[in-house]
């Protein structure tokens, strides 16, 4: 029994705890803290339609830098490089506690955007093109920073942070302010189907930031981003929104800036009177709207063309959500188309170059082939090599011409030589024809027969001598037998031999002389 009782107590405690927790969350997410009077502060608010008047001014606000206000939104910084802009309330707040709801969009074609958007509550209005998301550094008050770009490369952006400053600190851009922030949360607020919303509440020194991620159109889908106690902000301040782009760029559009002052029960100043005033003002506003509409209609009737034109102009200037989406799609597609066209142009260029190279190569080969054949017989001329893609230069042409000229002169010389040889052959032939064939033949014949005769003669002489020698050798026995030579008529051996030699010499000399004279005679033909 004891255990069952304690179980029940535990269960009750658990349920009670859950109930308390739920209530706590509800209280935190509830736009109006329990027991708080809320009042819409139109002098610190803007919203469509007629956000900006026709002259471009936003009632009760001042904007500058690259900010542009239209009837539907304030483009605090457009999606161009290095843009800065801001919008500030004209007057300081005259209430202690407040809640500001900002409905905004940060959109860009890039996967990463820059730099971000900031909400300000400061004692002084900031710059319109300052260093901290478009506003001034060393601010005195609160900044809620929607930081798109990850400067410290810790992969923790887009990040939402609350940074307090007493007018002395310089914002730590390099670390995305992480060294200075009061609190923060990681939320991707870029490129959402619906506008993102932030509800910044400052009540009894408690700062709460709720974020609507823009995934739905439900007004109540807020999530807690941060909550900080004991936050002491300056008593009075200016509200502002600023934004900046860098190398990357997003459109930073604010649609609603709605300020509500929060008052504890019984502290609402001049409640009844205010309510009366509000009713009166609402009535006046309605009357004014009706009057304006009436006047518009009248104007249209009076100037149908101009009115039409005017409407068209405004139509051109603004666009619906669908139109914008279509425009973005169209822009993306035209960019793709542009890239494709660029690619095809480059491909064409490459094909052109290739064809050019091919024709050059083939021409080079042809020139090579033409030059190689005739240059072969001309020694020492190297064949021209044309590498692929090379062009034929002037020196190459000159070299070719020189080669050909050399070739021509060589051929001319050869022809001359051949002609000479022809002439000589002709003259020899004529000479042979004119000369008496017998004589020519006789020359050779004569010498040969003469030599033969001389050889015979010499042989006979030798035989005679040897015969004489034999006889002389046999003389001791046969001297008596040989008839003694008659003294007067006998010739001596020595005399006989020397006469013979002289005779032979004379014949030889005569022959040489005869040959020479014949050869000289031939030259004259
Ligand atoms: Ca940053
Ligand atoms: Ca970061």
TrEMBL record:
Residue span, L-type lectin-like domain: 38-262
Highest taxon listed in the record's lineage: Eukaryota
Pfam families: Lectin_leg-like
GO CC annotation: COPII-coated ER to Golgi transport vesicle; endoplasmic reticulum membrane; endoplasmic reticulum-Golgi intermediate compartment membrane; Golgi membrane
Keywords associated with the record: Coiled coil, Disulfide bond, Lectin, Membrane, Signal, Transmembrane, Transmembrane helix
Gene Ontology biological-process entries: endoplasmic reticulum to Golgi vesicle-mediated transport
Subcellular location: Endoplasmic reticulum-Golgi intermediate compartment membrane
InterPro entries: ConA-like_dom_sf, Intracellular_Lectin-GPT, Lectin_leg
PROSITE patterns (UniProt xref): L_LECTIN_LIKE
Transmembrane segments: 491-513
Residue ranges of coiled coil: 275-302
GO terms for MF: D-mannose binding
Its membrane topology: Single-pass type I membrane protein
Signal peptide: 1-27
Protein name: Protein ERGIC-53
Lineage: Eukaryota, Metazoa, Ecdysozoa, Arthropoda, Hexapoda
